[in-house]
Write a structure and sequence with these properties.
Helix content is 39%, strand content 15%. It is an alpha/beta fold. It has 2 domains: 246 residues, 3-Layer(aba) Sandwich (Aspartate Aminotransferase, domain 2), CATH 3.40.640; 132 residues, Aspartate Aminotransferase, domain 1 (Alpha-Beta Complex). Strands 2-8-7-6-5-3-4 form a 7-stranded mixed sheet, sandwiched between helices. Strands 1-11-12-10-9 form a 5-stranded mixed sheet. Strand 5, helix 6 and strand 6 form a beta-alpha-beta unit. Helix 1 runs antiparallel to helix 9 and helix 9 crosses helix 10.
């Protein structure tokens, strides 16, 4: 037995768990697939493998249309989408539900796009009536495209994309719809063509379970035709040759990200051909429910603790943003990482980093290569940290998490 005056033992030895919203946990199979010598980038096995991967990339996005690949992160594919969608002076309407919606707006504005932002705050879904009214008021159809996040990685708000498209249709507006799926891709249900999306952007480091370094833009034939004369397009960002290459190098406008591709091939096999995409969505649903249930129990009678998004229908299945009250979120994150080997995400965008309130927020990721014992283990570690740090919380969180995961 440990004496009360003795220091706590270091419980962090063993494999660490990075429960942050990207880079996500990478499967051993993905890492092993990347651990090989450089291939021939001109002919043979690599070009053949890539040609067979493109239908799988379309399948995960739910589209029969075009996909362009880039060496870059999420910010890179924002720029890829912006430069292909717009000419200088064109107007974009950005619907922001958190920090990353605002960041996409900043990216477009910096390129010379005229950007109007409808900011719905950090904890609430967008008001689709307001969106419909704004689009209906644009009688001259000046707005070329509506940009939004499917899941804002900072706030964990999930936008109802079919309802958004319905609002655009009801307004009688022809704007293209572009959706950032960087946090949700391969985690939350997403059906690009069925939902009437024209442009989708995503990256490799979250639901696709591959290291950061690749980004993707899927675009409809309608978007291709209506953006054919966009004058912000530069040779590197041009999605046309990348989507319909006549030579292998055109996929990336140069040397391919060879080892990322080997890893991505393995990840797509796991997602589509072994688990199945709908089963992937169901697994993320169950993991998310367990996290929500734990926070509901911890917060019972303790109003400082709670989920950022009140309505489960508007919560991401990939990441959960929550509050503990300052400074307890930072205290808990420090404890779980250094004493127990579980790294939780910072509360990005909920307060300025120099504001003491910043220390009251955190995020728990449950995206990609994550199973029951990983999520339940992370929740157990969080509760252990609350006990160790004397953070007041309600009882029964782990039992509630198990029941939510198994019983729904």
């Amino acid at each position: 037995m440990t004496h009360p005056n003795h220091p706590q033992p270091d419980l962090s030895r063993g494999r660490p768990y990075l429960a942050i919203p990207g880079p996500s946990v990478m499967p051993d199979r993905v890492l092993a697939a990347m651990h090989r010598a450089a291939p021939n980038i001109y002919a043979g096995a690599l070009p053949d493998m890539v040609a067979a991967m493109w239908p799988d990339l379309r399948a995960v996005a739910g589209t029969a249309h075009h996909v362009a690949a880039y060496i870059g992160n999420g910010h890179a594919v924002w720029e890829a989408a912006n430069t292909n969608l717009f000419s200088r002076g064109d107007t974009a309407l950005v619907l922001a539900t958190g920090r990353f919606g605002l960041s996409w707006a900043e990216s477009a504005r910096a390129l010379g796009v005229s950007v109007e932002v409808m900011d719905f705050g950090k904890s609430s879904p967008m008001d689709l009536i307001r969106v419909q009214e704004r689009l209906a008021a644009d009688k001259g159809h000046v707005i070329k495209a509506v940009l939004t996040t499917h899941v804002d990685t900072a706030s964990s708000i999930r936008t109802d994309i079919p309802a958004l498209r319905a609002a655009m249709t009801a307004a009688g507006h022809p704007a293209l719809l572009a959706v950032d799926c960087i946090a949700s891709f391969g985690c939350d249900e997403y059906r690009m063509d069925d939902w009437g999306v024209d442009v989708t952007v995503a990256a490799s480091q979250k639901g696709l379970m591959t290291p950061p370094g690749m980004g993707f833009v899927w675009f409809s034939e309608e978007a291709r035709q209506r953006c054919a004369t966009s004058d912000l397009r530069t040779p590197y960002w041009d999605w046309r040759a990348r989507a319909q290459p006549t030579e292998f190098w055109q996929y990336w406008d140069g040397t391919a990200p060879t080892h990322h591709l080997f890893g991505l091939r393995e990840a797509l096999t796991m997602i589509l051909h072994e688990e199945g995409l709908e089963n992937v969505w169901a697994r993320h649903e169950a993991l998310a429910r367990s996290v929500w249930a734990a926070f509901d129990a911890w917060g019972a009678g303790h109003s400082r603790i709670g989920l950022n998004v009140a309505d489960p229908a508007h919560r991401s299945r990939a990441v959960t943003a929550a509050r503990l009250g300052a400074p307890d979120a930072t205290r808990l994150r420090d404890w779980t990482e250094h004493q127990a080997g579980v790294t939780l995400g910072i509360g990005l965008g909920m307060a300025a980093m120099d504001d003491p309130a910043w220390h009251g927020y955190l995020r728990v990721a449950h995206m990609g290569h994550v199973n029951a014992h990983m999520t339940l283990g992370a929740l157990a570690v969080m509760e252990a940290g609350m006990v160790a740090l004397d953070i007041p919380h309600g009882p029964g969180a782990l039992d509630a998490a198990v029941r939510a995961m198994i019983l729904g």
